[in-house]
Amino acid sequence: MSESHRGLGLSARVKSLKPSVTVAFTNRAKALKKSGKDVLIFAAGEPDFDTPQRIKQAAIDALLAGQTKYTPTLGDMETREAIAEKLTRENGIPGLTGEHVAISAGGKHTLYGVMQCLLDFPAPGEAAPEVIIPTPAWVSYDPIAKLSGGRVVEVATSAERDFKMSPEQLRAAITPNSRVLVINSPSNPCGTMYTPDELRALAGVVAEAARTTAPGLVIVSDEIYEKIVYGGIEHFSIGSVPEVSERTFTINGLSKAYAMTGWRIGYGAMPGEFGKTLIRAIGTLQGQMTTNITSFNYPAIRVALRECADEVEQMRQAFGRRAELIHTRLSTIPGVLCPRPTGAFYVFPDISGLFGGITPGGRTLGSASDLCEALLEEELLAFVPGEDFGGVGPDHVRISFACSEETINAGMDRLAAFVQKLGM
Question: 304 near 255, Cβ under 8 Å?
Fold first, then answer.
């Protein structure tokens, strides 16, 4: 190190932070594709559809009309009211107004803001606030909770129960230090979802704990995939349950349902007086980070929520066909066990039956990461290894089917041929 660099260094919390495995594998696959390789990418959590035209036109019209200035940090009140109206009408969440809504730069930004506002780093000698996360879970829940001072309490789920936490498991995980319970239905990475009755049962456990052991417990319900459902289970917002509605922060956004990932539009809402307090706190924090999202996007949000149900339905039906296709194809491959997907656009098959195999390239498979590395290098097929999703993740891979049926068939052909060539 040169003398001019002496004493420089990064913070411990950032040095300990792991990069997103989903982003890492997607970027590697895209780089290979850009170099001319015929890579089939099943790693990205991004719909392959284009944003509906009328949404794009709303933003274009606003831009041309000069809507290019700063706005209030949490968004203009007209758009916040439109979100409150949507959550009341479609999700049944009671008592919402625009003052109960925060608009942020994507669902991840919304999650970061609410965790920062609910959690504190413990003082010396004090216990850390606990964040209960059913696993396998999206890779960003854990690091964001820890960056905010939380101690993550994993609740392991299994493929046999469609990766769903039981009320008994939740009850056993709650302590006086429990501060946040994360619910994600439909699930990334699992592609499964809770039924309304199952969510009501979990809400009952939280309500009971709030009266006894954990009065500060808040549910953070990530519902970003709420409109991508096709397995016969209706989406249900746990924040609509009266006994927990004023301790449930609902996260959503436009990225997945409206094919608007690059627009970076997320939002969160929570009714009640504490809900207003929490939203104002998020506004204070966001005001020191990003301030408002892009100003000419607000009319696009309103158009998406009010006028684009037909386009969303067409995409939902396409995802349903793809889900059936990829589940059928995976079910025929020896050593691969795949729960039936019911929501989002992922499957999370157990591939541990392939462990011990030797690939044509000479790699011995001992983990999901080994399999994904081999598939990318030898078959130009990009999946995401399950290790970073927690729980039983090391025995699984995440496969996104946000791609055409032709691509799905081509990818499953490559996987089947790869498995057939394994030396077991």
Answer: no
